[in-house]
Amino acid sequence: MINKLYPRDQIRNYLLIDVISIVFFCYIVLRSGTIFGFWGNLFLLLVFLVSFYIGLWYKDWRLLAAVLLGLSIITLFGVLVSPSILLFGFIFADLIGRSKSKVHIMIGIMAIAAMFLIVYWKGTGNLFKQDYWILLPILILQLTFPILIYIKEKAKGLQGELDAANIQIEKYIQQEERQRIARDLHDTLGQTLTMIKLKSELTSRLINNDSTRAKQELEDILMMTRRALNQVREAVSEMKFISLESEIENSQKLMEAIGIELEIAKKELPLLPSVAQTMIALSIREAMTNIIKHSKASQCTLKFEIIDNMFNIQIIDNGIGLKRKEIGNGIQSMKERMSAVQGTAMIKGLSSGGTNVTLSLPIFQMERGNLAL
């Protein structure tokens, strides 16, 4: 019920102060004799309360109108009852500071100054009478109060926007982390599971004819299973650094195990940051996984070259080429990883059959050097 009478966001900071101020104001006015009498005073208090209520709920022109009306009533009682009534000008000085319009705030400040001037002038006819100097600090505070409230409300609004932005950033980070884990699982675990699948099929064919080799294949499957578990742990924690050297070595072992001839064109390589090496290594791993799973190739070439400050890696196979036009998760993953280091990934089918994957990375800001293979 109280939320309908008083704004929820102001209950904690303002409700008690407003209630105390209004109760004292009403008490002082009702016990004072004025030319309006008891019922006249009561009517003016009702107008005062309506003005206060409107000022609580609106921040547009209605707030300005309510503040001007409320200050007018305080001015009237300041003249008829006592200049000390001007203390209650803080009620509307606070409200006008919450206005969305700086113009309205300035008009409110001028109305507060006019309220004090009128009470001073009507009370003594002398604006410089020493008896009224005690109210001078009150005047200064009420003139500056709207500005302070405006700054406070502005800061609160900015904090709210910052909190909302932080929530959006947190959601974005969570989404990016999920995508990273998905890419890592696809790029690393997918290759291992593909090898387990192929070796399991081979073992099933060998188990009756060549039990010794079948046993060896089972041991390899066990080793790869342990490797898959480690890859899952790495993917859900943090992506580790993967060097080009280690990935090329793994690719050689992988292709040899599966029966695909891999030719590596060794040329001068640049010194790359660890992030760039990792992204290239994972892209090469994904390309090799695609060759194993889809290409039906018997031969593959891994070529490194530097042309016009561009580090290019080509993975070429002699398989069936791009039979499917849609972009799968693996291809999209390569594009995203290379894009993360300002590089590109291009995949195209060859007229003679097979596929050419080209990874390109600008190296004009990197120091040229040799990377041992």
Notes on the structure:
The longest helix has 71 residues, at 136-206. Residues 365-373 have low confidence and may be disordered. The radius of gyration is 39 Å and the shape is rod-shaped. The chain is built from eleven helices and five strands; from the N terminus they run αααααααααβαββαββ. Among the domains are: 2-128, no CATH class; 241-373, Histidine kinase-like ATPase, C-terminal domain (Heat Shock Protein 90). Strand 4 (344-349) and strand 5 (355-362) form a beta hairpin. Helix 3 packs antiparallel against helix 4, helix 6 (102-124) packs antiparallel against helix 7 (136-206) and helix 7 (136-206) packs parallel to helix 10 (274-295). A five-stranded mixed sheet has the order 1-2-3-5-4. The protein has 373 residues and is an alpha+beta fold.
Structural descriptors:
alpha+beta, 10% strand, five-stranded mixed β-sheet, single chain, 373 residues, Heat Shock Protein 90, disordered C terminus
Concise synopsis of the structure shown:
Its EC number is 2.7.13.3. 65% of the residues lie in helices and 10% in strands.
List low-confidence stretches. 365-373
How large is the share of residues in beta strands? 5-15%
Q: Order of strands across the widest beta sheet?
A: 1-2-3-5-4
Strand tally is 5
The CATH superfamily of the domain at 241-373 is identified as Histidine kinase-like ATPase, C-terminal domain
The CATH top-level class label of the domain at 241-373: Alpha Beta
Mean pLDDT: 80
Q: Roughly what percent helix?
A: 55-70%
Number of helices: 11
Largest sheet: 5 strands, mixed
Termini Cα gap: 76 Å
InterPro entries: HATPase_C_sf (IPR036890), Sensor_HK_TwoCompSys (IPR050482), Sig_transdc_His_kin_sub3_dim/P (IPR011712)
Coiled coil: 215-268
GO molecular function: phosphorelay sensor kinase activity; protein dimerization activity
Domain Signal transduction histidine kinase subgroup 3 dimerisation and phosphoacceptor: 177-240
